[in-house]
Design a protein that fits this description.
2 copies of one chain form a homodimer.
Chain A (H helix, E strand, L loop, with lengths): L7 H16 L6 E3 L6 E17 L11 H17 L4 E11 L5 H16 L4 E9 L4 E9 L15 E5 L4 H10 L6 H8 L7 H8 L3 E5 L3 H12 L2 E4 L8 H10 L3 H7 L5 E6 L10 E7 L3 E4 L2 E2 L14
Parallel strand pairs in A: 3-4, 8-11
Antiparallel strand pairs in A: 1-2, 2-5, 3-5, 6-9, 6-10, 7-9, 8-10, 11-12
Helix pairs in contact in A: 1-3, 2-3, 4-5
Chain lengths: 318, 318
């Protein structure tokens, strides 16, 4: 590793690639990791693949989250999608663009965070590309495997229950804290900088017979809306089942916000929402939060939801 | 499709995703394309995966190449890596970041170019992510399958011959033309904007028993250097076998450049270089251009090569 004062321009592309490749310890499914034209992974049957792009200034700020956290966060965004199909991530490919004046240590720490998050599901960084750009851009492609059939967004049927695994609203509240220039409650800031998707809960839902599943990255109401539209059903969410945690309540009181707004409209925790037929038993660590009916759209406690619905890129705000 | 005058900010993320997804006609190997949490592809045995990132201002300029060409070019960069392992691309995932003021039609044309290039190997765009950024960034991950064992960079042995498939120097000469503000010779500009990797030649080399292979993206001497280092051998290239084509000779004469500099130092044509043991017969469309010996490094006509060696990101120039 280089001294922290060196920049990417100091060390150059090829030394950076060598340093980043050294962090990647091939996982079991990986026959060939970084260093050749492509990665080579073992797969028998179906391969899952998903890409997420994080852009500095839009998805993270270097003054808000440490580079290692950004690595965890970038990996988690793609790995959560694999989980939401009922799969397990086996490898990550990382496209990394950055200005030459970026400290090389920032890139090394990013790579460490990516590798650590990948290791949570037994995966590793298997390849990637580095190049110059004015802002830091991180494009992570996660590859995954399945034991069961993929659980899509389109299988929910009237009569199913809607269940949740993982945290809701923590990352959004953490972002609100950071935007006001604060660093605490630290649990919320940590939730924003390093989300904790429930990686085990996706495959568990698939084994239990989940009819549809999605990860919450845009916001609960928005993402349940995607699931409802893909399935051609209506979903009603029951806020009595969404009890905001203590730090959420505290921050909401301080900022004069309904804590449910963070739970219903906030993304970035990468919680999972799944639907289960009544014949299935909802697995451990899943909480029933709603019901599926004929019709379309999402209601909250039987009424249209008027609060913030989540984020859409290119539109105003951010 | 929207009117050409609309921007990404006008139509918003979700409408853009819908429009881009509509271009993606799932190929045979694709069980589930865009629109769910992940793509799902069939694979039995080994999966190849490679990511390349193109950044506006570094890898392309919107005034030099049409959006559809940029799509072809971005897809080709990743697909050439699959070919260089002896594989066939089955699916592309596209991370796309762009400013809100970008005309929506540019994104549609980009998507059309990506889909058309993918179709050359029977592949399709299977997923992706769109987000906002100040400059256009395109991160393409190609997934592929193999009939034979992967042909890595590390299998070249003393006594092997070195062979080339595809064009050399055309894209570099096209870039030189564009940098001087010209648009002709059009064949060279087209070679830069829409490279033509020899997709059939990679699997053909694998079938013929190639011992090592790489695609030329940094420049012939630089990429053969990667192969030589990975294999622990020396390579000598024979310029008598590298006859520059007529438009290259014409442009070189006009610019006072040795045409061999484009052939030996220019990347972006995505030609393939492979080594073959003497027991193998070099397949059709491959030309022998050198020999492998004990030692290390790359020589040209038996001498060290002093010309431009190819591009390294973050360093000076571009």
């Amino acid at each position: 590793m280089e001294a922290p004062s060196k920049t990417l321009a100091d060390i150059g592309e090829f030394a950076l690639v060598d340093a980043l490749s050294a962090v990647a310890v091939p996982a079991d499914a990986v026959l060939l990791g970084p260093g050749d034209d492509t990665a080579v992974l073992r797969a028998t049957g179906l391969v899952l693949a998903s890409t997420d792009v994080l852009v500095e200034g839009h998805h993270f700020r270097r003054e808000w989250c440490a580079a290692q956290d950004v690595g965890h966060r970038a990996a988690a965004a793609s790995m959560a999608d694999i989980t939401a199909m009922g799969g397990r991530t086996t490898g990550l490919l990382v496209g990394f663009a950055a200005p030459g004046e970026l400290p090389a240590q920032w890139a090394y720490d990013l790579a460490a965070g990516l590798a650590e998050e990948a290791a949570l599901t037994g995966a590793s960084v298997v390849g990637g590309d580095v190049t110059a750009a004015r802002a830091v851009v991180i494009a992570v492609t996660a590859l995954g495997v399945l034991d069961d059939s993929p659980v899509t967004r389109s299988g929910a049927r009237p009569g199913d229950v809607v269940a949740l695994a993982g945290r809701l609203g923590w990352a959004a509240a953490g972002l609100a804290v950071l935007r006001r220039g604060f660093r605490s409650p630290r649990a919320l800031v940590a939730a924003y900088c390093r989300p904790q998707p429930p990686y085990e809960s996706g495959p568990a839902a698939a084994r239990a017979g989940a009819s549809a599943m999605i990860d919450v990255s845009d916001g609960l109401v928005a993402d349940v809306g995607h699931l409802a539209r893909a399935s051609g059903v209506a979903v009603d969410l029951d806020t009595a089942a969404l009890v905001p945690a203590e730090p959420l309540v505290a921050v909401s009181a301080a900022y004069g916000v309904d804590p449910l707004h963070y739970c219903l409209g906030g993304g970035d925790d990468h919680a999972l929402v799944a639907t289960f037929p009544t014949s299935a038993s909802v697995p451990e660590r899943w909480t029933v939060i709603g019901t599926v009916a004929e019709g379309n759209g999402v209601t909250v406690d039987g009424r249209p939801y008027e609060g913030p619905q989540g984020h859409e890129h290119f539109r105003v705000s951010g």
